[in-house]
Design brief:
280 residues; mainly alpha; two-stranded antiparallel ribbon; 63% helix
Length: 280
């Protein structure tokens, strides 16, 4: 026969209708209660798996849609890639290189098309750590983060890639002509577009960290010298040619985005007290 533990005499057992147990207001959960309560580690992993699965499905759907308009998309991409070449043509030396390039261009366009839904999955993953009153920020988060990603890709397409490409194509002379293979050129193009798309997410990342209480505007301003150092390191990694001009083309927008992120953290983040603690 199993023994059941006796209730403690020091701590009274609350009754089911005890009003002290009701943490919700008459209209539902209070604004200071998390959306879904606390989640265990396994629940976080399951939520992450779910969001990644939805994002992959969105990418595949975007790829299918982009494949339908692949002719126009390829013309748009090739127009930019060949703008600074003497004969405005690439070469390819592998049998499947042209086909796989078509696949890569459609996949890149699919990423841009699916970016709003992917950002929605990011929001749904971090939402359990936020409060009920922050649920109204879901639509602005998705719209702004998607717009920033597309803006970063456009910056890479119209400004950064042409600047880097002119540097590489500027070494042609009477002894040699620049006739690059298309695959490494497109690899450079994708790296710059996606890299700048992620870099332009800096204000949204700082917004999330500020809402979670991990950073404050005062903390970001106090450590701005380390941020500038990190920005120039990231700019050196993104720009492949090592040109100071191209590194500045990446670093200057990043510093502007950082200051926008500081403003966002000040407007929407938690306040830092004199003792180092944070509060709404």
């Amino acid at each position: 026969m199993a023994l059941a533990p006796l209730p403690s005499r020091d701590v009274p057992t609350p009754l089911p209708d005890d009003p002290t147990l009701d943490t919700d207001g008459p209209d539902g959960p209070a604004d200071d209660d998390p959306l879904d309560g606390r989640m265990t580690f396994l629940e976080h992993l399951d939520e992450l798996r779910k969001r990644i699965s939805h994002a992959v499905i969105a990418l595949l759907s975007g790829f299918v849609v982009a494949s339908i308009f692949s002719t126009r998309i390829q013309a748009f991409v090739y127009e930019r890639l060949t703008a600074d070449l003497p004969e405005r043509k690439f070469i390819y030396t592998e049998p499947g290189e042209g086909f796989f390039l078509w696949v890569k261009i459609s996949a890149l366009a699919g990423v841009l098309l699916a970016s709003p839904y992917i950002m929605l999955q990011v929001w749904l993953f971090i939402a359990p750590g936020l409060y009920v009153k922050e649920k109204r920020l879901a639509i602005p988060f998705v719209l702004v983060s998607s717009a920033l990603f597309v803006a970063g890709a456009a910056f890479g397409h119209h400004i950064l890639f042409p600047a880097a490409w002119r540097f590489f194509a500027g070494f042609s002379n009477e002894y040699m002509i620049f006739t690059p293979r298309v695959d490494p050129v497109f690899g450079l193009y994708v790296k710059l577009l996606l890299g700048m798309g992620l870099v332009f997410q800096m204000p949204m990342l700082m917004f999330v960290l500020a809402r979670l209480g991990l950073v404050t505007a005062r903390f970001l301003l106090r450590n701005i010298k380390y941020a500038v150092l990190g920005i120039f390191i990231v700019a050196a990694v993104i720009t492949p040619d090592g040109s100071p001009v191209n590194q500045a083309l990446v670093a200057v927008p990043m510093m502007v985005l950082y200051m926008i992120g500081v403003l966002v953290a000040w407007l929407f983040g938690k306040r830092e007290r004199d003792d180092g603690s944070v509060t709404d």
